[in-house]
Backbone:
């Protein structure tokens, strides 16, 4: 279209600016890849250089030997994030529906209360949280990382999903009522199927939150190696004497690759979903 | 209000009032928040009046708070935390706005660029930070290497070893972690702006910069404003980035309130003193949020927005 027309210099300028922006965003990954491909001895002794002839995939083989539980850590990370997502969604869907559709006393106040939870990350409440989990007998289990994760993701989940549910036409629910469906049946068979795109977007952002922030709960509430997620497990490459940086980077890249690929496929959906949901407020 | 009239018969059928049904639906969420957030919060406040350690606890009144108020180091930490927050959030918003504008431009390849901006957001924070920690190291790190190559420094520089450079290095990493999310939310907001507005302005001869300033920015202002508050709260409480890079060092240069709290409460297990710091964090954040929302309200009224 005419309004979008750019002259050649504007185009070049845009590409250069985009390149620089993406360079900033991707630099750490490029550097991690470079490190993971070089032997440790060369990394520590040689001068800095962009390219070298000694690139090899050796670190990608050795890492499984240096940290035998690496596969387990990668699995744990995804497993914990999925469990958090599932539990959060089970709690968030009915809650969001109540705030989107129903009138009840203390509605605004309780919603404000939920949103205020955003002010505390787990880090502020670690001391008593530790005691709560000890009392419940959950320390050093998967639950110690799943349950706090869920609690801190509920408020944003309710907030996001509420705005999707508000857009579903009321008439459909009323039609179901008229046909004799109960409230719960209507929620299950009418509202949830209609809200599927919104549910996917909200679930995705919950997953991102759960996957990105496992480190603190893992190092504080869990000391069983077999339950540790990848971000905590990576620190096993830090030895008493020296750190095998190349294997650490190789493990980090290998560990996030499956999730990264998954998001690449979801990307289009995600940006579109954000447009539809979050912006309206 | 006409709705309540229409749904009245259904209430009678299900035997459950609308309010009771609503509370039933939100009760699981309330239970979670109650056990994991509200109760620990109450407990934190109680502990802040004690000298609790692993050994036991006894009531000490306001002693923990008095100790904080009397400590010049603590005031430094508070000031540093606010500086950290303002600097980092401003940079995230600026980078996010630049990023969103670039990704919104009508150039071939934009779908790919939108994908490439995502990784720092979707991977575990700790992993990205490990990458930065490597880049900052003085012996074989990328940044030191580049600075030398361009002749900006003579010798190797260990960026995390000196106070000033460690602080700004942590800011850069924090901005890096936060930028993709801000970018994508602002991009989504920009795509929600009606094309008619741009076309009308264009017909009237408005240039690109003018359209950006007078249409895009005002239209996406609500999203910028709510992103700023959320981002401020997260940045204030940002733990992993600083902890992995420097653990608050060197010599306290990167110690923000949350790092200080963690060190006192968890590392040295002085629960009472740690709890008092946690209460200070919550209070400061609550005051900041209220002031922000109040200010926002005033601005909105002034500009006649909703």
Residues:
């Amino acid at each position: 279209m005419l309004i979008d027309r750019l002259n050649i210099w504007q185009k070049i300028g845009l590409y250069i600016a985009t390149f620089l922006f993406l360079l900033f965003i991707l630099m750490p990954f490029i550097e991690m890849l470079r490190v993971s491909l070089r032997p440790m001895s060369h990394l520590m002794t040689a001068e800095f250089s962009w390219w070298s002839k000694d690139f090899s995939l050796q670190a990608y083989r050795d890492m499984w030997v240096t940290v035998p539980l690496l596969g387990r850590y990668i699995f744990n990370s995804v497993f914990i994030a999925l469990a958090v997502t599932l539990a959060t969604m089970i709690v968030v869907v009915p809650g969001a529906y109540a705030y989107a559709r129903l009138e009840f006393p203390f509605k605004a106040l309780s919603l404000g209360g939920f949103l205020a939870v955003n002010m505390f990350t787990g880090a502020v409440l670690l001391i008593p949280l530790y005691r709560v989990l000890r009392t419940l007998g959950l320390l050093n289990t998967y639950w110690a990382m799943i349950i706090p994760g869920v609690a801190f993701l509920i408020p944003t989940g309710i907030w996001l999903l509420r705005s999707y549910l508000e857009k579903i036409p009321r008439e459909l629910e009323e039609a179901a009522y008229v046909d004799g469906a109960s409230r719960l049946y209507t929620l299950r068979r009418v509202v949830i199927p209609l809200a599927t795109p919104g549910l996917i977007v909200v679930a995705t952002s919950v997953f991102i939150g759960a996957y990105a922030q496992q480190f603190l709960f893992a190092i504080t509430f869990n000391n069983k190696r077999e339950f540790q997620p990848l971000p905590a497990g990576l620190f096993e490459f830090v030895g008493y004497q020296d750190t095998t940086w190349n294997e650490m980077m190789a493990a980090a890249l290998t560990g996030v690759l499956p999730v990264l690929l998954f998001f690449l496929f979801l990307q289009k959906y995600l940006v579109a979903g954000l447009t539809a949901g979050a912006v309206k407020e | 209000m006409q709705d309540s009239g229409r749904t009245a018969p259904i209430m009678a059928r299900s035997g459950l009032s609308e309010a009771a049904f609503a509370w039933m639906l939100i009760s699981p969420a309330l239970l979670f928040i109650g056990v994991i957030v509200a109760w620990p919060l109450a407990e934190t406040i109680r502990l802040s009046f004690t000298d609790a350690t692993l050994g036991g606890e006894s009531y000490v009144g306001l002693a923990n708070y008095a100790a904080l108020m009397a400590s010049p180091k603590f005031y430094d930490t508070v000031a540093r935390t606010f500086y950290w927050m303002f600097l980092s959030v401003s940079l995230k918003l600026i980078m996010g706005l630049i990023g969103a504008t670039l990704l919104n431009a009508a150039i071939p390849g934009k779908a790919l660029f939108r994908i490439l901006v995502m990784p720092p957001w979707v991977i575990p924070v700790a992993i990205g930070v490990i990458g930065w920690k490597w880049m900052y190291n003085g012996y074989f790190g990328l940044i030191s290497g580049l600075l030398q190559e361009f002749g900006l420094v003579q010798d190797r520089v260990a960026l995390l070893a000196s106070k000033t450079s460690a602080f700004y290095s942590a800011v850069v990493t924090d901005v890096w972690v936060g930028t993709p999310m801000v970018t994508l939310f602002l991009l989504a907001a920009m795509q929600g702006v009606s094309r008619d507005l741009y076309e009308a302005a264009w017909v009237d001869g408005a240039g690109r910069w003018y359209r950006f300033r007078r249409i895009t920015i005002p239209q996406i202002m609500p999203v910028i404003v709510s992103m700023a508050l959320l981002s401020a709260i997260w940045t204030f409480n940002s733990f992993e980035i600083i902890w992995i890079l420097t653990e608050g060092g060197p010599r306290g240069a990167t110690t923000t309130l949350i790092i200080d709290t963690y060190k006192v409460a968890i590392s040295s297990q002085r629960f009472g003193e740690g709890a008092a710091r946690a209460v200070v964090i919550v209070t400061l954040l609550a005051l900041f949020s209220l002031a922000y929302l109040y200010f926002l309200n005033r601005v909105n009224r002034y500009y006649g927005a909703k």
Q: What stands out?
A: Residues 245-277 of chain A form the longest helix (33 residues). Chain A has one domain: 69-277.
